[in-house]
Amino acid sequence: ELDVYYTSFRIPDFVAMVFMMGAISVAVIPIFTENLIKDKKKAFDYFANLLNLFLIILTVICSILFIFAPLLISVIAPGFSPEKKEIAVMLTRIMFLSPIIMGASNMISAVLMVFKRFLITSFSPILYNLGSIIGILLFVPYFGISGLAYGIILGALMHFFIQVPALFELGFKFKNSFSFLDKDFILTLKLTIPRAIGLAANQINLIIITAIGSLLAAGSVTIFNLANDLAMPIIGLIAIPFSTAVFPVFSMLISKGDRKGFLDRFYITAKQILFLIIPISGLCYILRAHLVRVVFGAGLFDWSATKLTAACFGIFMIGLSAQGLIYLLSKSFYALKNTVIPATVSLVSIAILPFLAMTFVHFLKYENAFSNSLIYILRIDQVSNLAVLALPLAMSIDSILQIIILMLFFKSKVKEFEFSKLSGFVLKVIIATIITVFLDYLIRQVFGGYLGSERLWVLLLQTSIVGSLGLIIYMIVAYFMKIEEVKHLRDYIITQTGFLNSKK
Predict the structure, then answer these.
(1) Does 467 map to a domain?
(2) I need a surface site. Which of 12, 92, 235, 428 has the fewest CB within 10 A?
(3) What is the CA radius of gyration of the chain?
(4) Of the ranges 100-109, 174-183, 235-244, 311-320, which is most confident?
(5) Burial state string for 58-82 with b = 16 or more CB within 10 A and e = fewer than 16
(6) Is the dihedral of CA 279, 280, 283, 289 positive or negative?
(7) Structural domain boundaries enclosing 105
(8) What Gene Ontology molecular-function terms does this entry list (predicted)?
(9) pTM for this one?
């Protein structure tokens, strides 16, 4: 049933990401801020008009997709039985309320962030997740799998209503009028469309993977999504914050014509991202089974499903660094006022991904050198449904190809860019990571031998200790290898904690 739920979630999530996140990340905040500097009333008039128009657009789109839900489910889940398709259609139709509610709520979040109301905007996602938890604990026992969809809607409503009072407190007044001819709305669309294309490509990739997964053994879609959900927070905690924070700096330097300063900042940020993601990927790889069992529950899966989910998670680690740099390079192109290249590369990935996925599925269905190598490397002997590994493998290779293409385009646009400024650094980080992973693997084996891994709390303790020791080892190795980011990280921690001041 989880396969059905994850599949049903894809289309509403696609609508929310493409039509709302693109607008918010590229257009709403800068245009609202520009108007706010001139006239607060004008800024809120722009927002009221934009809110009305986007709600109309989203309602129309979701209504059309609601009608055609059976056709859409047949396209993205061709391998589902008629019974599964029927359930998926029902869940999809329920969850089409979510993009409308979350669309309005995320736009409100954008305005609140301009006014630095970060507490509320940080709390609203917690309420959204709380809605999902309520759906699982309270709704599912009464409504069955539909309870998961009702939980999503409840979370979206809580996400919305917690922010509305703060918006009105700032002086916003709702208006029942709208204009498609408003120049700021037209500008918003112009800025949104290229970004939306790139987001659409990313979502289409996930839909393609879901479609292929539905053709494999039952549980494949769930295994892939759980592994993906476990891997993505690493990007969310490192690559996205670094890239988002440096974006206005990039824009300022480019607007001043300081391309050297722009490149220097690019090198620094790229190194910071890679310095953290590469070793974390390595440590997560050797702790993959531990993390799956701790996060999703030691008794939730049988051992075979746990090994497959852990293997998928481990494969995701291959392309994680590439995914991290994709965010940074995209922001770099946006600063250069070029949104076409990232969008084009994303579209190219749509063509590459299904070819890669189906090729890997073909090879993993039979015993051969390729499948045997994966079995040995990932320690997944005596499990069935190896074909599910094709999904994360295709996405990882696709990410690596994307970053290579983006780097080549970046070099063509910024002639001063030198690959050597990063390649030597990356090599040192990889060597430090290999040493760290080897030593931490030995530590893991020792702890596993003494503590065992049958109880969840023991598993959590073991994972925490081994993971923490791994990070400490990496920092020590990196220090002796004279990787400068160790010093930068130390200085940042001291600055944020006031450690030296407390010593004086």
Answers:
(1) yes
(2) 428
(3) 24
(4) 311-320
(5) beebbeebeeebeebbeebbebbee
(6) negative
(7) 1-194
(8) lipid-linked peptidoglycan transporter activity
(9) 0.77
